[in-house]
Amino acid sequence: MMPGTADEGFYELRLYVAGQTPKSVAAFANLKRICEEHLEGRYQIEIIDLLERPQLAKGDEIIAIPTLVRRLPEPIKKIIGDLSNTEKVLVGLQLKPHH
Which fold has domain 11-92? Predict the structure, then answer.
């Protein structure tokens, strides 16, 4: 582990999508890349397709697609969109301090 990386801890991430739309595919690709770079070996991504399991949207109060939910570490955080803005995702997941 290099000094200056995010706090130790396991990240449990849940990505809500609706089918294999370009936006959903992009969100997953962006998330995977960010996790590989910043959370290597310390994350789990669960993809929930609301076309297949719409009832799961209620639990995390999903109102837009795609939405990334950080279940762990707490508090729960949500990021909406295709996650193409790496900076915004890092701040949203609290992997990077606000400036």
Answer: Glutaredoxin (3.40.30)
